[in-house]
Design brief:
Length: 208
């Protein structure tokens, strides 16, 4: 028989620039959580006068569920997207990692940021690699995990496209829709700056 008194709750942790850190305390009466982490996207490379920059890679992804103890603290960090390259000045930057650490036993899950795209030169810049993922003393159940998607290389006429982002899936019952989280930045066109990658995300879902 369905228990209509059970309430679904979730908390979303994002970054609007820089690496954001949070402490989240497990609510009273909660013994299991589901979680979803996405690393930030890498920045796109700048284009030269003859070739476009490479697109940044998207961040890695982890979906999991884990036992927790009411009152337990989780340390959460959210990666910011890598900056795009600037023509004749600076290289694009990698995306930063998103992570959860369970403070009682230091087990952790990390979705790494995507790699930066290369600057264009006489040929197009290389595409950035997709971010990876890692688990340390994993005490939960891994639902799915994947490396991010690589960005494409620049060409003689345009910058490379970004690594495609991941979207929140049916694991979370459609409560959150995708919004480009963790996407790499597109490479700059001829003599144009690259674009910044998108920030990562951590989502925690539970029932009370």
């Amino acid at each position: 028989m369905k228990n209509d008194s059970i309430k679904k709750r979730w908390a979303i942790f994002t970054s609007s620039g820089g690496i954001y850190t949070y402490t989240w305390q497990v609510p009273a009466g909660v013994y299991w959580i589901k979680g979803y982490l996405v690393g930030a996207g890498g920045g796109g490379g700048a284009g030269s006068s003859t070739a476009g920059g490479g697109g940044g890679g998207s961040g890695g992804m982890i979906a999991f569920q884990s036992p927790v103890t009411p009152g337990e603290n989780l340390s959460i960090s959210i990666g910011s997207g890598g900056l795009g390259g600037v023509v004749g000045s600076t290289s694009a930057q990698n995306g930063n990692n998103s992570a959860i650490t369970f403070n009682t036993d230091n087990s952790s899950l990390t979705a790494s940021g995507g790699g930066s795209g290369g600057a264009g030169g006489t040929t197009g810049g290389s595409g950035g690699s997709g971010g990876s993922y890692s688990l340390v003393n994993n005490r939960g159940m891994l639902i799915s995990a994947s490396n991010g998607n690589a960005g494409s290389a620049g060409s003689a006429s345009a910058g490379g496209s970004s690594g495609l982002p991941y979207y929140i899936n049916a694991f979370f019952n459609g409560t959150i829709t995708g919004s480009g989280v963790g996407a790499g930045g597109a490479g700059g066109g001829l003599s144009a700056n690259g674009n910044a990658g998108k920030s990562g995300l951590v989502l925690i879902w539970w029932e009370e």
